[in-house]
Write a structure and sequence with these properties.
α1 (11-24) packs parallel to α2 and α2 runs parallel beside α3 (71-77). The chain is globular, with a radius of gyration of 18 Å. The chain has two domains: 1-132, TIM Barrel (Alpha-Beta Barrel), CATH 3.20.20; 136-228, no CATH class. With 228 residues, the chain is α/β, with parallel strands linked by helices. A five-stranded parallel sheet has the order 1-2-3-4-5, with helices on one face. α3 links the parallel β3 and β4 (83-88). It is built from nine helices and five strands. The chain starts with a strand and ends in a 5-residue tail after the last helix. Helices cover 49% and strands 10% of the residues. This is 5-dehydro-4-deoxyglucarate dehydratase. InterPro entries: Aldolase_TIM, DapA-like. Keywords: Lyase.
Length: 228
C-alpha cells in the first residue's frame, strides 16, 4: 500500500519532515497547514513551491483551518512540479467546485472532512468522490460496507449506516473539542489495538462518552454483520 506521510508547519520544518519521510520510504506527502497565522494566497502558494522544490516526493496540499485556496491559487498549484492534489477539510462546496473546475482532469481532489462519510454524497456531486475515512482506522468493516453501498448506489444501506452509526458518531464527536482524534484512538483500543491515550492538550473520552462509543460501535458492527 502507498504511504502518504504528514508534513507541514513552516516550510523549513516541512522539509525536515519530508527528508525523514523520504528516508523511511514514504510514497508521498500530505502538507498540513502552517502554524497559527493567516496568510495571503501568494504566500500559501509560495509555501507549497518551497516545499516542492526541496523534496522528490509528490505533494498533496491540505486545506483546513487557516488555509483555504481560491480557484486561481489551485490553478497555480497545479503548475508546481510535484504537487499532485488537494485534500479539503473546509466543506465549502461552492468554493471547492470552483477549484475542481479550475484544475486539469489529472489533478487529485480528496474529501478530508471530519467523518467524511457524512458528506460523501455532497462532495461526489461536485466532482470529489474520493475521501479519507477515520472510521476505517478502527472499524474497517463499517467503512468498507459504507463505501461499497455508496459506490453501488445502495441508497437504503447508505441511509441506514448514516442514520444509525455515522450521524450519532458525529454528535458524540462534537460534544468535546478534539474528540475527532480521541474517539478514534479510544475505538481502536476497544477493537484490541493498543494505541495508547491522546496527548495533552487533547483529552480521552469521559467514562460516559466511552460507554456511548462502545454502544455505538456495537450497533455499527451489528449493521454490517461484524463483531466487536
Amino acid at each position: 500500500m502507498p504511504v502518504v506521510a504528514g508534513t507541514g508547519y513552516g516550510w523549513a520544518q516541512a522539509l525536515r519532515f519530508a527528508r525523514i519521510a523520504e528516508d523511511a520510504g514514504a510514497d508521498a506527502l500530505l502538507v498540513m497547514p502552517h502554524y497559527l497565522t493567516a496568510a495571503p494566497q501568494d504566500g500559501l502558494v509560495a509555501q507549497m513551491e518551497r516545499i516542492a522544490a526541496g523534496t522528490r516526493l509528490p505533494l498533496i496540499a491540505y486545506q483546513r483551518g487557516q488555509v483555504a485556496y481560491t480557484a486561481e491559487s489551485v490553478r497555480r498549484l497545479t503548475r508546481v512540479p510535484g504537487v499532485i492534489g488537494l485534500k479539503d477539510g473546509h466543506s465549502d462546496l461552492d468554493r471547492l467546485q470552483r477549484a475542481v473546475l479550475a484544475a486539469p482532469d489529472d489533478f487529485l481532489f480528496f474529501n478530508g472532512a471530519a467523518t467524511a462519510e457524512v458528506q460523501a454524497r455532497a462532495y461526489a456531486a461536485v466532482g470529489v468522490p474520493a475521501y479519507s475515512s477515520a472510521v476505517h482506522a478502527f472499524a474497517p468493516e463499517i467503512a468498507n460496507a459504507f463505501f461499497a453501498a455508496l459506490r453501488g448506489g445502495d441508497t437504503g444501506t447508505v441511509d441506514k449506516l448514516l442514520r444509525d452509526f455515522y450521524v450519532p458518531l458525529v454528535e458524540l464527536r462534537d460534544r468535546v473539542p478534539g474528540y475527532a482524534v480521541s474517539l478514534v484512538k479510544a475505538a481502536a483500543r476497544l477493537r484490541g489495538c493498543p494505541v495508547g491515550p491522546v496527548r495533552a492538550p487533547l483529552t480521552d473520552p469521559s467514562p460516559a462518552d466511552l460507554a456511548a462509543l462502545t454502544t455505538l460501535l456495537t450497533t455499527g458492527l451489528d449493521l454490517v454483520g461484524a463483531a466487536l
